[in-house]
Amino acid sequence: MRENEGKFLLTSMDIEGNIRYVCGDEREGLMEKRIYPCFVAGKQKPYANAVVVGNTIYISGMNGRSSETGEAVSDTIEGQTWRAFEEIESAMREAGSSLKNLVKTTTFLRDMSDYQGYRDTERKYLLEHAPELVDEPVASTVVQVASLPKKEFLIEIEAVGIIQD
């Protein structure tokens, strides 16, 4: 526990390596923040896969990368979109929720001509894994970007979900 001008921060790590923060002060009460680290090719990255504050799950940008090698799993927008949604679903489960509780996505495309391929694959994935999101879609933003972390990456999707009580 660290103290700083009446505020405190408790940290702990569970057996799976997830970091748990509880912070606050006497006036504000407690706020819990759980961090789920990101590992690629066996190395921890300097950012989290997901962070949970209250019942909100904030998921870092997921792309078409293999967790084992760090390389793109496909050279198509369809293959990379499918992989990104697999990673989002995995992060939602790890945080104690499910894909059906996804509420917002922000998608970064390297080329907007991939938009239809992205949307078609998103729909197929959701029909298979969370069909309720096809009828009741999430809030969504799609933008084209100049580049992504590796030149072979075509897409990155960040997401926000909730944990239902």
CATH superfamily membership: RutC-like
Total of DSSP H or I helical runs spanning 4+ residues: 3
Please write the CATH class name.
Alpha Beta
Mean pLDDT: 85
- Structurally, the number of domains stands at 1
Low-confidence stretches: 1-10
Proportion in β-strands: 35-45%
Q: How much helicity do the residues have?
A: 10-25%
- For the largest beta sheet, what order do the strands appear in spatially? 1-2-3-4-5-6-9-7-8
Using the alpha-carbon principal axes, give the shape: globular
Structural class: alpha+beta
For the biggest sheet, the summary is: 9 strands, mixed
User: What is the tally of beta strands?
Assistant: 9
The string of secondary-structure elements, in order, is EEEEEEHEHHEE
- So, CATH architecture? 2-Layer Sandwich
End-to-end span in angstroms? 29 Å
Give a nutshell description of this structure.
The chain is an alpha+beta fold and 165 residues long. 22% of the residues lie in helices and 42% in strands.
Structure notes:
It is a single chain. Helix content is 22%, strand content 42%. The chain is of the alpha+beta class. Strands 1-2-3-4-5-6-9-7-8 form a nine-stranded mixed sheet, with helices on one face. 25% of the residues are buried. The N terminus is likely disordered.
List keywords for this structure.
165 residues, alpha+beta, 9-stranded mixed β-sheet, 3 helices, 9 strands, globular
